[in-house]
Structure formats: structure tokens, C-alpha cells
Design brief:
Layout lengths: L1 H15 L9 H4 E17 L6 E7 L5 E7 L3 H6 L12 E9 L5 E9 L5 E4 L1 H4 L12
Parallel strand pairs: 3-5
Antiparallel strand pairs: 1-2, 1-4, 2-3, 4-5, 5-6
Length: about 140
């Protein structure tokens, strides 16, 4: 009887388990040899899993304005760093250093995010900072 109950519980757990969200390796989508430097106002921010996304309007040297989608770290990492849903607002002007998409679209992975007006570093990846440990911010938010 006990083993039948355990078998039923195991079957229920297996049948109701949600599939894991797919995740990608950095190198599968972004190219370390395609550094990008973007500066412009935020048009929106999406708090999605597995990564949050910033959308900014970058003005090129010829005056052309392009919208870029910039992948950040996961939501939990941003929250641990002091970001909340109101930390970055539409219209905030940011400077973003990162790496472009392999497919040539206006998509990048952020290596650092700075508020242009104040110079406040909001986030910097460990790879970008040359320091050990997890992704970090330099100044308190």
C-alpha cells in the first residue's frame, strides 16, 4: 500500500512538472569580437526570464537612430544588486558597453551599464571588470 502511494505521488509529480525554460550560452548568440558602445535613452525595460532586457535608442555618427535590445543578467541577480522595477525609467540616458549579436541584428549582451548624466555605474560584468566573483555594481543604488 505504501509503495503504491509513493508510486502515485511520483507519477503525479512527473506529470505536473513544468518544462525548464531553455537557456543559451553567451557564445551561441553573442560575439566577444564584436564590441558595441551604445548611448541613448531607454525606450523600455522587460523583466523576463531567463534575462532582463533593456531597449535603448542609439544615435549613430551619421545621425541615424537605431533601437537596440540589450540583454542583462537574470531578474534575481538584478534584484540582489539593488535594481527594482523602477530603477531604470523610460527616458533615462544610459551608456552601455557590450558585445553584439552573431546574427548582425541590433542586439547586444551588456558588459556594463552606466547612467550617462551622473556617471554612476549600475552594473558591470566580472569579465568586463577583470575582478573575481559574481556580476556586481560599483556604487550603491
Amino acid at each position: 500500500m505504501k509503495s503504491l502511494l509513493l508510486s502515485c505521488l511520483a507519477a503525479i509529480c512527473l506529470l505536473t512538472a513544468a518544462p525548464a525554460a531553455p537557456h543559451h550560452a553567451f557564445a551561441s548568440e553573442f560575439d566577444i569580437n564584436k564590441p558595441v558602445s551604445l548611448t541613448g535613452p531607454v525606450t523600455r525595460m522587460e523583466w523576463t526570464n531567463p534575462h532582463a532586457w533593456l531597449f535603448v535608442e542609439n544615435t549613430r555618427d551619421d545621425g541615424t537612430v537605431e533601437e537596440w535590445a540589450v540583454e542583462l543578467v537574470g531578474i534575481n541577480d538584478l534584484l540582489r544588486l539593488g535594481w527594482g522595477r523602477s530603477r531604470v525609467q523610460e527616458g533615462d540616458v544610459l551608456s552601455i558597453q557590450g558585445y553584439g549579436a552573431r546574427n548582425g541584428t541590433n542586439t547586444a549582451n551588456a558588459a556594463s551599464v552606466t547612467i550617462t548624466e551622473t556617471g554612476e555605474l549600475l552594473w558591470e560584468s566580472v569579465a568586463n571588470s577583470g575582478r573575481e566573483g559574481r556580476d556586481r555594481r560599483r556604487t550603491p543604488l
